[in-house]
Write a structure and sequence with these properties.
Strand 8, helix 9 and strand 9 form a beta-alpha-beta unit. 50% of the residues are buried. Helix 4 crosses helix 5. This protein has a nine-stranded mixed β-sheet with strand order 1-2-3-5-4-6-7-8-9, with helices on both faces. The protein is built from ten helices and nine strands.
Length: 342
């Protein structure tokens, strides 16, 4: 289904050109386009940009798209959980030179199984322990027959450190998720179908999913987000970090939205929605006080206006953590992935 060798030469440059003008805890015979500059798990040389093209800011979505990304060396460690439905392992993999930890649920039975990469929401890295944040989803999805790889991100649990991650508006988390997909694809494990991979993100992880869709179209087959953060990073800073010294450091380095609007525009997935090729399902509660539902309504409107395959499902009275209506949201999630990954 998916070829890791096509359309590699164009996306990064396309994004650059576009800039210049503007938690809680198929079946078909044609090859699918592959993500720009994510040509294979181990990476291959990228075409050099035209001498007349200025390189993008490394701290931007065009900069992220222009880089070569790798994901390799998926290793299973100790068994953490074993029951009749699946076995959960501690895992590590390599993403752009860093070792990233996480957990992986492998369903019982004969594979290969489609796979999902899970991107968790914000949890203080000093308090975070491996696999935290999406326990309900990890279990339900594995029981439905998906290999589930939950990444811890850099600076979390057993992952390597990246001291510049916060200053770079946590773009490293997106690199870690892209690396997870590539590591699954390159693992050659019999249980994993590397041609059927989706993404699921919650809260901050929803923003990671947005970034992945615009920076690496073709990398996955479909994506789901729950109660996602804003696709405009300045809104996230205002909502979550205004009193945090990290916000002052970011604005000292990159400028405020008023002083340097180009930087903040290049950090927003909404600027590059035309690049998205995968279907997106958004779940959001109308009573979410952490991530207001208006953020998801804007994303759905912009995606729809651009002719993208997007669906927003709202849940009356649900807050950020999804309690009473979580089973309904998961049934629609399973149908969405089932229609696109099976």
């Amino acid at each position: 289904m998916r070829s890791p060798s096509r359309a590699c030469a164009t996306l990064g440059l396309a994004l650059v050109a576009a800039v210049g003008c503007t938690d809680t805890g198929d079946d078909g015979s044609a090859e699918r386009p592959s993500p720009a500059n994510v040509p294979s798990a181990t990476g291959t040389p990228r075409p050099s940009p035209s001498p007349s093209t200025a390189p993008p800011d490394p701290v931007s979505l065009p900069g992220l798209a222009a880089r070569e990304h790798t994901g390799t060396d998926l290793r299973l460690g100790d068994v953490r959980v074993r029951d009749d439905a699946y076995t959960q392992y501690a895992v590590t993999y390599r993403a752009n030179g860093l070792t990233i930890s996480g957990i992986m649920n492998i369903p019982t039975g004969d594979g290969p199984f489609p796979a999902l990469v899970l991107a968790h929401g914000y949890i203080d890295p000093d308090e975070y322990t491996t696999g935290r944040g999406l326990a309900r989803e990890q279990d339900r999805l594995a029981r439905a027959g998906y290999v589930v790889l939950h990444t811890d991100y850099r600076n979390h649990a057993g992952s390597d450190d990246d001291p510049d991650n916060d200053l770079n508006l946590r773009l490293g988390y997106t690199e870690d998720v892209m690396g997870a997909v590539l590591a699954l694809r390159s693992s050659a494990r019999d249980e994993i179908d590397g041609d059927r991979i989706g993404l699921l993100g919650r809260s901050m992880g929803g923003g990671v999913v947005y970034n992945t869709l615009v920076a690496a179209p073709g990398l996955v087959d479909a994506a789901v987000v729950f109660a996602p953060v804003s696709a405009r990073p300045e809104e996230n800073v205002e909502q979550f970090q205004r009193d945090d010294p990290a916000a002052a450091e970011v604005e000292a380095e990159h400028g405020t939205p008023e002083r340097n609007p180009a930087f903040w525009r290049e950090m927003s997935a909404l600027t590059y929605v035309d690049q998205v090729t995968e279907p997106l399902l958004i779940h959001h509660g109308t009573a979410d006080e952490t991530c207001p539902v208006r953020w998801s309504r804007e994303v759905a409107e912009v995606f729809d206006r651009a002719g993208k395959d997007v669906e927003l499902r709202t849940y009356e009275g649900e807050g950020h953590t999804f309690y009473g209506q979580w089973p309904d949201s998961m049934e629609s999630t399973l149908k969405f992935f089932g229609d696109r990954l099976n």
